[in-house]
Design a protein that fits this description.
Layout (H helix, E strand, L loop, with lengths): L6 E9 L2 E9 L9 E10 L1 H8 L10 E2 L3 E9 L9 E5 L14 E4 L5 E2 L6 H23 L9 E3 L5 H12 L4 E5 L5 H6 L4 E4 L15 E6 L3 H10 E9 L13 H5 L3 E4 L7 H11 L8 H4 E6 L7 H5 L6 E5 L4
Parallel strand pairs: 9-10, 9-12, 10-11, 12-13, 13-14, 15-16
Antiparallel strand pairs: 1-2, 1-4, 3-5, 3-7, 3-16, 5-6, 6-8
Helix pairs in contact: 2-3, 2-7
Pfam families: ADH_N, ADH_zinc_N
InterPro entries: Acrylyl-CoA_reductase_AcuI, ADH-like_C, ADH-like_N, ER, GroES-like_sf, NAD(P)-bd_dom_sf, Zn-ADH-like_protein
Organism: Beggiatoa alba B18LD
Length: 334
């Protein structure tokens, strides 16, 4: 499969301290270094991608850079023996679209150490429907399991429930038999949340956040995408020896709490970073996402599939909080 002389990419420039994304014609020589070249079939949109492309967050570490933290496609060039031309592969996170050219391009070049073979049971499309969001949710679930979480211990609360990570976390946990409560500010999404696995839906507008160091213990565990006052409230309402997997800071990076929940209830606050993990762990989690952690309601979680040419029209809707679930991007046929 020959690599064309030129191809298209969504490249982000910094012009007079302003973030300027635009479709750009590139050559292979323009891409970040690596041993493997992938012809892109699909990518996806994560909240981090929207922050990067709109300039609302300081995500990109250098300019210009192709955006997109995820990619799935077919290998068209490889300098290592264990990755062959024609292999279907994926890469999620690992600095793509942040420190090196990412997945919003018809061709992507990456170090071989970042490449994951497409697990049996997934297609390139479903791999990107899961993407970094699903991988992060799976890592959170695994961390909960490692710290003794079981369905028998009681309900799990998932915050930021309508987003990509939240939606997939709900579906993964429900598939494992957990009673899941979804926390959202969007009452109109109640039916969607129940469809993807939530047993209960809690509206954030109805919460009495309280002010005592310890409030009534309600949750055996939680996956938090918000931070701020919601995370503070969670530390005060988790049951003894319960766990909070902390993924995001969509509301705030602050945490105003006391030591009381930790020393009197023995709760665990587990930080989730899906970039800084060993390749063997990454491969294992992707294998689980194709088997026991496969999201059974993935079709319902896929909000839309957009073409590469329409990609720039979507990001502001993420920033405005108008997107539920997952958006996948069809880059090209492979």
């Amino acid at each position: 499969m020959p690599i064309p002389t030129t191809f298209q990419a969504l490249r982000v420039f910094n012009e007079h301290n302003t973030t300027c994304p635009r479709m750009t014609t590139l050559t292979l020589a323009d891409l970040s270094a690596g041993e493997v070249v992938i012809k892109t079939a699909y990518s996806d949109i994560n909240y981090k991608d929207a922050l990067a492309v709109t300039g609302k967050g300081k995500i990109l570490k250098s300019f210009p850079l192709n955006a997109g933290i995820d990619v799935a496609g077919v290998v068209v060039q490889s300098d290592v023996a264990h990755i062959q031309i024609g292999d279907k592969v994926l890469v999620t996170g690992c600095g793509l679209g942040e420190q090196r050219d990412g997945g919003y391009a018809e061709y992507v070049r990456v170090p071989a150490s970042l490449v994951v073979p497409l697990p049996s049971g997934l297609t390139l499309q479903t791999a990107m429907a899961i993407g970094t969001a699903g991988f992060t949710a799976a890592l959170a679930v695994q961390r909960l399991e490692e710290n003794g979480q079981t369905p028998e211990k009681g309900p799990i609360l998932v915050t930021g429930a309508t987003g990509g990570v939240g939606s997939l976390a709900i579906n993964l946990l429900a598939g494992l038999g957990y009673h899941v409560t979804a926390l959202t500010s969007k009452a109109e999404q109640t039916d969607y949340l129940r469809q993807i696995g939530a047993s209960d839906v809690l509206l954030s507008q109805t919460i009495d956040y309280g002010s005592r160091p310890l409030e009534k213990a309600q949750w055996a565990g939680a996956i938090d995408n918000l931070g701020g006052k919601t995370l503070t409230w969670l530390t005060r309402t988790i049951k003894p020896r319960g766990n909070i997997a902390l993924i995001g800071l969509a509301s705030s990076h602050e945490l105003n709490t006391t030591v009381m929940p930790f020393i009197l209830r023995g709760i665990n606050l587990l930080g989730i970073n899906c970039d800084e993990i060993l390749p063997a762990t990454r491969l294992h989690l992707w294998q689980r996402l194709a088997t026991d952690l496969y999201p059974s309601n993935l079709k319902a979680i896929i909000n839309q599939e957009v073409t590469f040419s329409d990609l720039l029209t979507v990001f502001n809707r993420y920033i405005d909080g108008k997107i539920t679930g997952r958006t996948i991007i069809k880059i090209a046929d492979v």
